[in-house]
Amino acid sequence: MKIRLLITILFFTYQLSISQTEKLLNGKVLSENIPLNKVEVINKTAKVSTKTNELGEFSILVKAHDSLIFFYKDSFFSRLKISQENINQNNLIVNKVLKPEELNEVVITKVEFDKVKVDADDVADVLISKNAKDLFWNTGVSDNTIREALRVSFPLKGKQNKKIEVDDDRFKKLIMAYCPPDFFIKNLKLKPEEKELFIDFCESDPKSKTLLENPNVLACIDFLYAKNEEFKKLK
To answer: What is the C-alpha separation between 171 and 109, in angstroms, rounded?
Structure first.
């Protein structure tokens, strides 16, 4: 009986030691069966990373329950929790969905029109012709029409143009570029109506400016998780 108990303890100890030992995991990242090159594969748990090659292949050290993040510039990041089965199979296939291509924004900074040249004699001819048909001009009898209704206005000297402030939405664009649409609800466990409020809450932190200066997907995700804990305490 004691021998069986000892064997059982040794067996579980062996299994536990295997699960806690890092193994080299091989895999491939695809999009519609096309290999993706230079995809960042990040082991968020162990804080190590690598990139896929031209064939979409990668190798990275992992343990069971480690969290892998896959980031590609033309897609949202995806997250995968590694299981012992993934390690045993040692052939992880990750399928990425590319973001729809966006058209570049066209900004018109200045529009110049050709100057219209007006001849004084032509203007005089028009006025004479108009007045010749005017009942009041010829007889002094009003025909109830409004004359000289058009006036040309000129800006007062020294009056400054009103400045239009443009909202800085760079942080929001950065977050939307890194995070899939369901990240806030599925991962951060936020309600749909809390999403915009949470982003504003994050943007008010000075650290958000640092992320804009040095964009990094791992730092961005860590920042969002940390701010999410603070946001929950405010509720």
So the answer is: 24
